[in-house]
């Protein structure tokens, strides 16, 4: 005699859309790389120069993840020495308003933070 079949496990709830977005473009360097790719295709070394502080290994990992998620296209040109360019895919380009909003928010925050006497604890 066989045991009765187990009922199917309930489906995991879908994550919050903000969680999904952060999962895809989160990470210290992903949004920065996307920002620099908004200006058009870039070679790896050019991206690295535009992103002071990122290591070669970390930039490689972040670009690979963005490529795996369909946001970045990696084009390898058959020449010596090899030439590789990164560009945003049509899906990656849809992130432009988000990245531009991050740019504006960061500039405003930096400006607010640079004002003497301003802090989060100030009250009216």
UniProtKB/TrEMBL annotation:
Q: What is this protein called?
A: HTH-type transcriptional regulator YdeP
The HTH hxlR-type domain, residue ranges: 16-114
Q: Quote the PANTHER family the UniProt record gives.
A: TRANSCRIPTIONAL REGULATOR, TRANSCRIPTIONAL REGULATOR, MARR FAMILY
One short Pfam name that applies is: HxlR
Family annotation (InterPro entries): HTH_HxlR, WH-like_DNA-bd_sf, WH_DNA-bd_sf
Keywords, sorted A to Z? DNA-binding, Transcription, Transcription regulation
């Amino acid at each position: 005699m066989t045991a009765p079949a187990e009922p199917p496990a309930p489906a995991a709830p879908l994550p919050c859309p903000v969680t999904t977005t952060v999962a895809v473009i989160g990470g210290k360097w992903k949004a920065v790389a996307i920002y620099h790719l908004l200006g058009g295709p870039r070679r790896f070394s050019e991206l690295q120069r535009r992103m002071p502080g990122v290591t070669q290994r970390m930039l490689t990992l972040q670009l690979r993840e963005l490529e795996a998620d369909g946001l970045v296209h990696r084009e390898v040109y058959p020449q010596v020495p090899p030439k590789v360019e990164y560009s945003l895919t049509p899906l990656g380009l849809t992130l432009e308003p988000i990245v531009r909003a991050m740019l504006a928010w960061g500039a405003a925050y930096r400006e607010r933070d640079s004002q003497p006497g301003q802090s989060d604890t100030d009250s009216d």
